[in-house]
Structure formats: C-alpha cells, structure tokens
Amino acid sequence: MQGIVTAVSSNGEYSFTKPNRESITLLAGLGVEGDVHAGVTVKHRSRVAQDPTQPNLRQVHLIHEELFAEVGEAGFTVEPGQLGENITTKGLDLLGLPVGTLLRVGGEAVVELTGLRNPCLQIDRFQNGLLKQVVGRDEAGNVLRKAGVMSVVRTGGVVRPGDLIEVELPAEPHRPLDRV
C-alpha cells in the first residue's frame, strides 16, 4: 500500500490555514519543526484549556487530497494547507487505516497514526457550511469524521511534495481510528 505527498504545510502562529512549503522537517516526539502545534504536550488551544499536561497525539495532521474533490462536488473550494493540515496525501485511504499504523514518508520520516481529527466550528468560519461536508453520519447513525488523521513522529526527517508514503499496518487485532 503506497501513496504520495502532494503538499506540505506549516505555520509558526495560531491560524486555521497553514501556508504550503517546499519542505517540512519532522522532529521525533515533537512534530513539525517551527509549527505551532509541535511539542511533547498538547498544543491545540481547546485541549490546553482542558489539561495542558496531556500528551500531544496531534503532532502531525494529514489529509487526503481526495477530500478536496469530494467537497468540491458540493460547491466548496479547498486547497492543500487550508484546513490546517501539515501533509496532504494522495492515493491512501487514511481514514480506513487502524490506530498504530506507521507511515514511512520520504526517505527517513515515520509517523504513527493516533486518531481522527475532530473537526470544529473553525471550518465553518473558513467556509460556511463546510463542516457538514467533513462531518456526517453513516446509515447506522454513526458519526463520520473526514477531515484527516492525526499522528505522532516516531522518526524525524525532511518531507517534500512528491515523496512516497509506505504503509506498515500494526499487529492484529486492528482498532479503527477514533477522534483524538
């Protein structure tokens, strides 16, 4: 199972969107070098308000580029970095991978999937109505979160657009991703 990196993004300031970069550097146990969400403990404002000592399971945010086409069919225009992700991918079913999946990105970097991004109202501030496109319900009434996955950095390295992504599944039984 392989995919490709189509864009990389980071921002040293709190902002919903993140500008695209030529490359980003992942730091083991921390996240994206220079990104506001990098750190051993949680950096997302709502999580810090709850408990600033909790571990940062949201060091690197990945979104599948295919989501942009999906929301485009509903009239929304979204480009890489605009939903706050660090790595935009293509060709991988990120949402279908289990907790603990390792993604080998480029020649060196490895991230471990921790869970699903829990989309918030900031998405509607970015484009009104977009939240309903990235959070929905399946036929059984279960909540579906489609705004990407969160991960922690296991091995650091430089990541660039065009880098291959190799998937290493964890030992079974697999646990589906849940919000983190």
TrEMBL record:
Classification via PROSITE patterns: MOSC
Transmembrane annotation, as ranges: none
Listed GO MF terms: catalytic activity; molybdenum ion binding; pyridoxal phosphate binding
Span of domain MOSC: 18-168
Gene3D superfamilies cross-referenced by the UniProt entry: PK beta-barrel domain-like
Xref: InterPro entries: MoCF_Sase_C, MOSC_domain, Pyrv_Knase-like_insert_dom_sf
Source organism superkingdom: Bacteria
Protein name: MOSC domain-containing protein
